[in-house]
Amino acid sequence: MTGEFEDMYETFKAILDAFPPSEAVKRLNLLGVSQEIIDQIREHHEQQTIRIKELEEPHAVVQGNRDTWYTGPQAKDKCWPAIENLLRKDGWPEAPAIRNLDDSSTRVVSLLNHPKEKSFSTRGLVVGYVQSGKTTNFTSVMAKAADRGYKLFIVLAGIHNGLRRQTQARLVQQLVEPNPSMWSQLTGLDKDFTPTENPAAYFGKNNKTHVLCVVKKNATVLRKLALWLQKAADYLQDCPALIIDDEADQATVATKSINPLILSIMGNLPRCAYVGYTASPFANLLIDPSAADLYPRDFVVNLPKPQGHFGTEVLFGRYALDGEDPEQVDDGYDMIRSVPEADVPYVRPETRADVEGFEPVVTPTLRRAVEYFWLVTAARRVRGVGNPHSTMLIHTSVNTAVHNSFKKPLQGLLEQSAKSLADAAFVSRMRDLWESETARVPAEEFGERPVPFDDLVPELPGVLRSCRVIMDNSSSEDRLDYENGPVVAIAVGGNTLSRGLTLEGLSVSYFVRAVSAYDTLLQMGRWFGFRNGYADLPRIWMTDELAEWFRHLATVETEMRRDIDIYMTEAETPLTFAVRLRTHPALRVTAAAKMRAAVTAASSYGGKRVQTHYFHTNGDWLRHNIAAAHDLVSDALANAVRVEDRPVEGRYVFRDVPHDTVIRFLNTYKFHEKSPENDAQLIAAYIRKRVTAAGSLRRWNVAIVGNPAGEPYTFAPGVTVGRNVRARLAVTNPDPDFADIKTLMSRRDAAVDLSGDAAKLTEKGIMDRRRAELPDTGLLVLYPIDKTSEPSAAKKLRGPLNADAHVMGVGLVFPEPQQGDSTVEKYISADLSGVRIEDEDLSLLEGEDA
Prior knowledge:
Blueprint: H1 3-16, H2 21-30, H3 35-53, E1 59-62, H4 79-89, H5 94-111, E2 120-127, H6 134-147, E3 152-157, H7 161-176, E4 183-185, H8 200-203, E5 210-215, H9 219-231, E6 241-246, H10 258-267, E7 271-278, E8 299-302, E9 309-310, H11 312-316, E10 336-338, H12 344-347, H13 364-383, E11 390-395, H14 400-405, H15 407-420, H16 424-440, H17 453-456, H18 460-466, E12 467-472, E13 488-493, E14 506-511, H19 518-523, E15 529-530, E16 539-542, H20 544-569, E17 609-611, E18 614-615, H21 619-639, E19 642-646, E20 651-658, H22 659-668, H23 680-694, E21 699-705, E22 712-716, E23 719-722, E24 728-729, E25 739-740, H24 763-773, E26 778-785, E27 798-799, E28 807-813
Parallel strand pairs: 2-7, 2-8, 3-5, 3-6, 4-5, 6-7, 10-16, 11-13, 11-14, 12-13, 14-16, 21-26
Antiparallel strand pairs: 1-8, 9-15, 17-28, 18-25, 19-20, 20-21, 22-23, 24-27, 26-28
Helix pairs in contact: 5-6, 9-10, 21-22, 22-23
């Protein structure tokens, strides 16, 4: 770059603070800059914007007409460099942590409007992970926006005082304290918004400071703020504002008071950007995009999962998505411990009528969880690294009276255990617990140092002395306070602990709360996040049903994020894409009020793979499916054009079977009712539509996949294969009539009817080969599964299947349509009749602010 160009480019950047790019170029013309230099400046700026747009992470879906004006921090900036310095002092590594934060926050700021545009009303959404640093991301976005001229910053910080105070403290520490002369505050640590008499003091031309306002989503508070801004209207024409909506799925969507008040506040701000942040965007993505509401019409940004983050998938495992090799999808860490259903009435009232006078019992599993927490705290003291705080969460009910009832029994357990430290039997039990847990999850697998039990013993008296039992809820005076030295706490609570609030050093959770919706359930996972120095030690006690719900949720979450990434590469915009959210028979996607604008997604099986992984284990149900499978094989033998027997592989392929045979089987075979994606009626309807509309799927290949080393199983005379082993996911208290095998088909099985050796083909390779060889032919695969199915020693999270009869697994592979696909629709709503649920208490939204 020439000296003249460099000088003028610096001038151009300075002008950009006052004018959008197109106007800034005109100003260069007025300064008499030569056209050649202007062209170079324009080209260089365009290259910088392309670099921002093409960042590998984060992915974004963007309205096509949005100009990228922001190309990253400048040398003269004050707010963002201050955050960088604080993060370095806190031990954040430059690469990848600070660099990724810089990139992702730059990408979000680049999607906002230039602050000097005459008017704008932007709506965006940033999707992160629970406890993954979303606050740090939006603080960085605010810092960079402030460095470029945004003036008013309103942060909507959940619905509880605890989260609002925590957010205010973070923003003061990272934004205000490093540059105190640059900021004015409308709220404080202990006070939510209260109107002042003189708006001009904040927004008049003589006040160059940025204005910070951190408020709860409470109707009284927001009404005051909306009225005050209305009175300040004369000063707001030149006030670019950024509204950050933390926990944007909570209270913002489809609430009678909060939603209109947010829109009213935005209506008072002629230059306003609204950016929602959430880890559970289900409700936000179901808003009607055509309504005058907060649908993220301008952009959706999908933040990458930070390195070392414990999320839903790594803790609970998940199921394979279309196109994935099930063998490559992990079962999750061995950190989930089972609470028997029989224990639940002792820790949570069964009905509302039982709340009054409820007295919880310290059950064996609760005692074990608490004792393990003390051992973890001692081990972390021995290691002497990472977060100095240590917290346990007990969450059994939304009801504050229930929380408070835990105080006495937990305090009693604490006092009794402190006295028992001299008792050999107590110490021996603690040793057995520690050695059993550390054997199941070896420290070395997480790069951590093992801690022998004998090293814990000297620490235990100090741990029990410093441990406090805290009731943290909207009616208690107790609060988790991490600002005054290291904390060791057993926190009992509900909603105040289940949204946004960071539980520092959380290592053990006991969770049996009944919930009804994906977003509520996901947000209650306070155990997600970073576990530096103790990645091997976290444990979660919950019912097996809840663990299964979280596993389903991990699959929904992964699929949703993949959808956003796919749309990003397909040049869709937020107004033309619709993220599909797979359903669950016992959970709603979000609260019913938030789904009013939702439509039933049209299902297409084109290019998809469907497989069974849930089974009943009772003999009658299994024998019914055995009979259906035998009838299918007999029909296939009678009607196939060709039969291939591959004894070395333990496989049979019946080629070109009529589709009527497959539909007859689907009408007979019983899929488990917990598998909404395995809907026989829907699949059969799709096949019929394809046959009628396109002449596709008239013929099917039916295969049997067995294990050559397994015990023989005979389907029909001359058709015998070895039985497969498919162990079930192990749970401590299994439902004797339910098994989840998680994986049925391997990638190789989906290629069983293709020519040549398909063993080394990728998923894409298999689909490409199917398109070339069998463009209109479906594949149905039967799997005879041994009723005992003992797991291999390497499968720690598996147990024997132990079914009453052999199990028939089914997989279907559909060809990708060559032109236009058929769709089938079905309304699927959750059947909640058998589930006792406690939804979030949103009365705080309407009440007078405390």
